[in-house]
Write a sequence for this structure.
């Protein structure tokens, strides 16, 4: 005789019973399927093409020709203009011959040097009379004017300065009495520049230079 089930019992399997229920595979959690993304797939980066092999540039050779002009031969140091070493004073007439072209014992360079020294020391040449060249000096020295005229004083005054420049007369040497060449030249040039100088004063200075300096 079959026993009727107890109404307090349940026919459903116990929840912890591993032997009952559905397929065991139903208890495994399924991994969530990733949602498809809506962003476009990234495009692959383009790989730059390799640089072409560099072409070697042609080599250019430039030839430069330099012409060197040779320097002129050295002529030595420039000549320095100084007083001469003569011991013989000359008269105005002899200095006139020295200044004449082709008749001078001194060369033109020496005569020009002497005239430049005169121009630096004198207050008459070239301020009152021009005597920068031998030709200009010759005209003054050839003057035939009398001792009472200024042209005669110019002649003896220039000759006296040339005797100093040539070394024949020293500026401190006595020429007459207590008068030195310096004092005689100073007085003569003063008489030559002064407009009110008397003929007697001009004659006295002219005679002093002609007799005591230019001989």
């Amino acid at each position: 005789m079959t026993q009727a089930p107890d109404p307090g019992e349940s026919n459903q399997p116990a929840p912890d019973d591993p032997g009952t229920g559905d397929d065991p595979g139903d208890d495994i959690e399924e991994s969530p399927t990733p949602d498809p993304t809506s962003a476009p797939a990234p495009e692959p980066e383009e790989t730059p093409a390799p640089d072409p092999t560099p072409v070697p540039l042609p080599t250019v050779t430039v030839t430069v020709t330099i012409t060197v002009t040779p320097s002129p031969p050295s002529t030595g140091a420039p000549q320095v203009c100084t007083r001469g070493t003569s011991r013989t004073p000359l008269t105005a007439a002899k200095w006139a011959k020295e200044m004449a072209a082709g008749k001078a014992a001194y060369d033109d360079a020496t005569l020009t040097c002497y005239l430049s020294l005169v121009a630096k020391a004198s207050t008459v040449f070239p301020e009152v009379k021009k005597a920068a060249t031998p030709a200009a000096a010759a005209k003054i020295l050839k003057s035939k004017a009398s001792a009472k005229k200024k042209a005669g004083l110019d002649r003896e005054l220039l000759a006296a300065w040339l005797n100093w420049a040539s070394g024949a007369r020293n500026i401190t040497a006595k020429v007459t009495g207590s008068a030195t060449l310096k004092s005689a030249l100073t007085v003569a040039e003063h008489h030559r520049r002064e407009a009110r100088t008397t003929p007697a004063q001009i004659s006295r200075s002219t005679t002093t230079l002609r007799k005591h300096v230019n001989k």
